[in-house]
Amino acid sequence: QALVPSSEWLQRHGLRRNKLSLSQILSQLGFRHRKDYVTALGKRVGSRYADGLFPQHRGALDGSVYNLTAKKELILHFVDCLTGAIELYEQRMEWLTSESRQIFGVIQEGCIVIVLDSGSVAPAEFDLCRDALSMVLVEQVTRIAKFNLLWAAQDLMKWQQQCTPVSEQAVKSALTWLWKLERVTAAGHPNSARALLEATSDQAVSS
């Protein structure tokens, strides 16, 4: 799936975009039961001809009532459309909460710097962090334009001096650099902040 935010994904595949919201469906299955103002009577009067003639459904947020006139075939058509939409939403949710996206979310920027700060994690946890970073490099960074890695140790270390175009060779090089790092004790807040400032100093960085 494309590395797009959910807001953009919904613009393409959302219920309203595909005319599958409740109010949109109801307007295609029947007509709204209206109450119009009758000047001669000085009050709002409902359309009595529909009372008891059609099944009714109160489904809109404003409490509107719809008289349902659709045939079974049209209703089954919407059942199929909504079933497909549910399956699509489930696929999206499964994709959003799997692999590296479960930890990092969906990387949408074209140029990023990943700042590594192990803090006081144990050696085993440090390797788990590197596993997660390796996963995001392979699964998501390979699909953007440029990237860099910065190690927030006592002495800041960069994989490259500036953001590098993404390629298979570049990602392999970054993975090798990552796994050659040795865990150090917490760098401390000043160094962590300095690493973040250094990461954003590259004008090419999106975020």
Q: What does the largest sheet look like?
A: 4 strands, mixed
As residue ranges, the low-confidence spans are: none
Strand content: 15-25%
The first-to-last residue Cα distance is: 22 Å
Task: Spell out the helices and strands N to C.
Answer: HHEEEEEHHEHEEEHH
> What would you call the structural class?
alpha+beta
What form results from the Cα inertia axes? elongated
Can you tell me the CATH superfamily of the largest domain? von Willebrand factor, type A domain
CATH architecture of the largest domain: 3-Layer(aba) Sandwich
Count of DSSP strands: 9
Multimeric organization: single chain
| Number of DSSP helical runs | 7
**Portion in helices:** 40-55%
Report the mean per-residue pLDDT as an integer.
82
CATH first level of the largest domain: which class?
Alpha Beta
The CATH topology of the largest domain is given as Rossmann fold
Give structural notes.
This protein folds into two domains: 6-97, no CATH class; 109-205, von Willebrand factor, type A domain (Rossmann fold). Helices cover 42% and strands 16% of the residues. The chain is built from seven helices and nine strands, in the order ααβββββααβαβββαα. Strands 6, 7, 8 and 9 form a four-stranded mixed beta sheet that branches. The mean pLDDT is 82.
